[in-house]
Design goal:
Blueprint: H1 9-16, H2 25-29, E1 43-47, E2 52-57, H3 67-82, H4 96-102
Antiparallel strand pairs: 1-2
Length: 107
């Protein structure tokens, strides 16, 4: 079974809350406009130059990978297949934690 790597919304929120880079205080002090209504259960919008959270809703809630995550996983896998780094019949290890999380079990 092939497991995909995905950054959870909790991990993204924690990374975004890290201190901004030096010299970005003036940018961080600017007030962001009101976030638009988004038809999503949760989201996180981060300014990657300052690590400032611009908008969020339920950013710490667990969520299944989004379609873009699945597409990027497919891209990485197909590239690895093309470059012969992996094979279709190759067995890949899945950690107990990843298996438990996929099945919805708590560790």
């Amino acid at each position: 079974m092939l497991s995909s790597l995905a950054l959870t919304s909790t991990a993204m929120a924690q990374a975004a809350r890290a201190p901004a880079a030096a010299g970005s205080a003036a940018v961080a002090a600017m007030v962001a406009p009101q976030a638009p209504e988004v038809a999503a259960k949760g989201f996180l919008l981060v300014d990657m130059t300052t690590n400032q959270i611009l908008a969020e809703r339920n950013a710490d809630a667990p969520a299944e990978p989004a379609s873009l995550t699945k597409l990027m996983t497919a891209y990485v896998v197909f590239s690895a297949l093309r470059d012969r780094k992996i094979a279709l019949d190759q067995k890949l290890p899945v950690s107990e934690r990843a298996w438990a999380e996929r099945k919805g079990a708590a560790l």
